[in-house]
Amino acid sequence: MRYTGMPNRKPGGFPAMIHRPKGALPAIALLAGIVLAACTAPAPAADLPLEGHAWKLAMLNGKPVALTADQEQPTLAFDPGAGRITGSTGCNSMSGLYRLEGARVTIERVAMTRRACLNGGQTEQPYVAALEQARSWKTADGQLTLSDASGQPILVFRQ
């Protein structure tokens, strides 16, 4: 036998450390495919905290919010550092104060700008009134629900 400069050389010309049993390569490829698929699959949506997110109004007093072509999406955000809410009514900007005690919420002194808007005004007053009637909150499935004192959902927001 001649010296080839590589130890553990097998007669087929491949080093012994690379020799694989038949069927191992497809199994390794299948396992790698499963691992990659698991890494790219979307994670389930976790419940979001109330504060620190911009919420978009989806339902008002049990009815879906219908937007006109030139109407902005009504929004709501809770600023924990200032104890203030900010957002839009779909026409005007608004702000107010809020207080949290566990699942209880109190929103008060909501003030807004007074722009004259052709569209969006029909949701403005009911939206602000519902905010001030909210007494509890919960988040689930990426939604925020504000309910009145009787536990009836009055506002539903989406992320």
Tell me, what's the shape?
A: globular
Main beta sheet: strand number and arrangement? 9 strands, antiparallel
End-to-end span in angstroms? 73 Å
Q: In sequence order, what are the helices and strands, one letter per element?
A: HEEEEEEHEEE
CATH class (first level) name of one domain: Mainly Beta
CATH topology (level 3) name of one domain: Lipocalin
CATH architecture of one domain: Beta Barrel
In total, how many beta strands? Answer: 9
What is the helical fraction, as a range of percent? 10-25%
Overall mean confidence score, pLDDT: 80
Rounded Rg = 29 Å
| Structural class based on helices, strands and sheet pairing | alpha+beta
Please give the count of helices: 2
How are the SSEs ordered, and which strands pair?
Layout: H1 24-40, E1 54-60, E2 63-64, E3 75-79, E4 84-88, E5 93-101, E6 104-112, H2 121-133, E7 136-140, E8 143-147, E9 153-158
Antiparallel strand pairs: 1-2, 1-3, 1-9, 3-4, 4-5, 5-6, 7-8, 8-9
